[in-house]
Design brief:
This protein is of the alpha/beta class. It is built from 8 helices and 7 strands, in the order E-H-E-H-E-H-E-H-E-H-E-H-E-H-H. The chain has a single domain (5-246), classed as NAD(P)-binding Rossmann-like Domain (Rossmann fold, 3-Layer(aba) Sandwich). The protein is 47% helix and 15% strand. It has a 7-stranded parallel beta sheet, with helices on both faces. The radius of gyration is 18 Å and the shape is globular. The model has no long low-confidence stretch (mean pLDDT 91).
Length: 259
Amino acid sequence: MSPPLAFITGASSGIGQALAARYAQAGWRLALVARRTEEMQAWAAGLRLDESRCRIYGADVAQIDSIVAAGQRCLAESGVPDVVIANAGISIGMDTRERADLDVMAQTFALNNTGLAATFHPFVAPMVQRGSGRLVGIASVASVRGLPGHGAYCASKAGVVAYCESLRTELHGSGVRVVTLCPGYIDTPLTRGNRYGMPFLMQPEAFADRAFQAIEAGASYRVIPWQMGWVARLLRWVPNAVFDRAVQGRGRKKRRGEH
């Protein structure tokens, strides 16, 4: 029997690339999606992963037909994955007073939400027919409460949590598990420009190892690291008046074009 197969989007850097490396280390075959295919080819070559171990698909996850086509190519070339990780996402600050930032919000939802559903789409029916598989949505601790200047990102990640929960209930009893992972602060290009403190900052490799374990266990929802899980629980119960005062003066996510 051939090794199991993991299909991962946003694999050219950060969490996605760390997850790809972790699955490769475990002996899995990889189907990796990214816009920067040349970088991905070089990365695979550096790990000595030939085409029998790693196939790379160029796609724009924000374009429905593009990511759906990548998934269909994977099915045709490698079969039904055992794990699909919808990791691709963006985080850009926004100010609702600025017209251009409404476009930022639309682009964020197109990638973080519609793109996630489109990533899963080609695989749901084949997985159900087989009676097994894991669909993994990468959300964020930012899904728990809205933060100033983070309206697009927080809303999109709250949407990921709700969507994955809906999908999980739809697929209950089918053998297909839906796993929602909520990273805290991970040291990636997405976070390095942040202008505020990032408690319990993790390296992407450490996150990938814990994520791998959570996915293998079939966890329905997991916050990583666990310390941020306790922070998330606390934030859910903090009264709005207290929360609103606490976040005043907090640094905002950089808007597009800000340095």
